[in-house]
Amino acid sequence: MEDVELLAPCCPSKIVCVGLNYVEHAKELKMKLPEEPILFLKPPSAVIGPGTEIIVPKSSERVDYEGELGVVIGKRCKAIAADRGQKTHSRVHLLNDVTGS
Questions:
Q1: CA 72 to CA 66: how far, in whole Å?
Q2: C-alpha neighbours within 13 Å on the C-beta side of residue 51
């Protein structure tokens, strides 16, 4: 493995995230769970490979990190029935989500 460089698992065209999506995290932040999902985007450049240095901008006053579950959707889809959902995604990944503010 010394001669192999592990790269990011995919090169996404976009990253769609769901925020404040579980009870314990909302409690930790002292926030109520939203009635509708909070969606936000991250740039494709946010995906890096294992062991790659995480660069935190000097302007960041705080850095948060947490484990996340990422789903790679391999096909364009819209209004998919629940029983067909597995046919749209191709991979599931464990992610280290690091956010500076």
A1: 19
A2: 5
**Helix residue ranges, H only, the chain:** 23-28
Of 5-9, 52-56, 73-77, which gets the smallest average pLDDT? 73-77
- pTM: predicted TM-score of the whole model, two decimal places: 0.70
Q: Are the beta carbons of 81 and 96 closer than 8 angstroms?
A: no
Of 25, 101, 38, 26, the C-alpha closest to 67 is: 25
Paired residues of 69 in beta bridges? 94
Rounded distance between C-alpha atoms, residue 43 and residue 45, angstroms: 5
DSSP state of 24: H
Show the tokens assigned to 17: 């995230």
